[in-house]
Write a structure and sequence with these properties.
Elements lengths: L15 E6 L17 H4 L6 E6 L1 H4 L9 E6 L2 E6 L8 H10 L1 H4 L5 E3 L11 E4 L5 E5 L2 H9 L5 E3 L6 H20 L6 H18 L1 H12 L6 H17 L4 H12 L8 H15 L6 H13 L3 H5 L17
Parallel strand pairs: 1-2, 1-5, 3-6, 5-8
Antiparallel strand pairs: 3-4, 6-7
Helix pairs in contact: 3-5, 6-9, 7-8, 7-9, 7-10, 8-9, 10-11, 11-12
Length: 326
Amino acid sequence: MDNEIDNSIVKPVNSIPVGISACLMGEQVRHNGGHKRDAYINGTLSQYFTFHSFCPEVGIGLGTPRPAIRLIASDQGVRAVGSRDSSLDVTEELVSYSQSSFKQISQFSGYILKRASPSCGMERVKIYNQKNMPDPVGSGIFAAEIMKKFPLLPIEEEGRLGDPNLRENFIQRVFIYHRWRTEHSDSLTVQKLTDFHARHKLIYMSHNQNQSRQLGKIAALANKENLQQIAEEYISLAMQTLKKVATRKNHVNVLQHIQGYLKKQLDADDKKELVEVIKRYHQGEIPLIVPLTLFLHHFRKSPNEYIEQSWYMHPYPAELKLRNLV
């Protein structure tokens, strides 16, 4: 990942609000008094996201440094207790802190959590059994409360952002969810819902073609009387669909679909070149950005309003270079 900050890019005034574990921002809030500052987050992503940091353990009054805590399985469910002193039980305090944060988190369009943390870990957090044996099957107390309260919120761990596909997937979800929250949810109309679906349809297709068709059917049912209900059903399935990482096979189907909008505009050589480039992408020889760049070249010469409006062609700022590696 690119750890360099491009100072020529100025963060937009309406940059996207995203929650984050405080240690990832370089705040010295770890149990040992240290931090886990992430260069990609503080460099590249900070140009587009406005981060709001949380440390649940500090938030409930534990000092820095402090005794480490861990998750244990008990008759009362999973508990957060001291690693060396099991009489230190901060489960209820962490739950209460989480719930007190809900109002602020409801304004976010994404959240980045610290991997493996007993408070912030999203998944595969160690839970110790009665024999003191760990099993990586849990979620941190704070993270679990957030995920339960905000099932649509794009959430990811910093460690997983090192994977190009997971990184692209998370950032794409954040931009889409932010568009929904800021442009549609408060002033939604049937036309806005229809337009939102039309602009994101190709993106849905790249994640799951069956669910993309289902989303189209849901949007088509909307009217003034049922709009709120339909909108909730629509965005719930949309975010569920987007959580599935797009595959090369599905991207190829989308690219071939887009090619149909140029069938009358291209000569035989141009068509042959497109087919070859899509084939090379399918075989993993080139990244997604290559066929997309070629398509954009042709659509500059032969504009198409639908393709021009589709977020598939530009789901987030090109400067993020996410499609250079997928």
